[in-house]
Amino acid sequence: MKKFIKYLSFLLAFLLIIILIQFNFDYIYSTIKKTDYLKRQIDICCTWGNQLADGILTYEINNAKPETKKLVISAINYWKENIQGIDFKETNSKQQVDIKISFRNDNGKVAGQTMTNFDSDGFIFNVKISLAEKAFGKQLNKNVIEYIAKHEFGHALGLGHANFNESLMSSLVYHSFNEISDCERESVMEANKWKLIDNDSSPKISKIKKSFC
Length: 213
Ligand SMILES: [Zn+2]
Fold this sequence. Notes:
Helix 2 packs across helix 3. The longest helix is centred in the first third of the chain and has 37 residues, at 2-38. The strands form three sheets. The chain has a five-stranded mixed β-sheet with strand order 3-2-4-6-5, covered by helices on one side. With 213 residues, it is α/β, with parallel strands linked by helices. It has helices at residues 2-38, 66-82, 142-156, 182-191, 193-196, and strands spanning 41-44, 56-62, 87-90, 99-104, 112-118, 124-132, 134-135, 138-139, 159-162, 210-212. Helix content is 39%, strand content 23%. The chain has one domain (41-212): 3-Layer(aba) Sandwich (Collagenase (Catalytic Domain)), CATH 3.40.390. Zinc ion binds at residues 151, 155, 161, 171.
């Protein structure tokens, strides 16, 4: 019997040590996870080249109803108010347009899409944004169209997606987080640092690929 009690207490001590190790491990593991989660960041995709040298990016809006066009202009103006150093100007000229925005009426599965074209040095050469008034068989409401226009315009300025939901650049569209915060502002500045921060005369690709906020 004594032997058995001795054996049992050994076993209990052994189990206790295992539980303690496990607990410790879980604790360390969850701390790592927590700090990782706290690192809010926005991916930086690309940098504008010579088109931004004069501080002006031109745009045109095609195939939009007048009231829808207003939503897009208001989205662009919102960026204009928030980013110092870039002026966005509407143009109707047949010359090179920097940002082409068009609405498609195919009632498709895409409510917004941005295609970026690069020059041979890897700088943004021009951008095509597709928006829709209807998607997934439904008419999109004004707030959603304006939100998507803001989000896509963020891509046009060199941003990728955010890793947290409370961002205009979140990839989860249904969160519809509508505001430009310091995080988006600083990421655009970082993407186009050569012009917006350093005010250099020749473009330099952003070395930073993630902007922490
Ligand atoms: Zn996106």
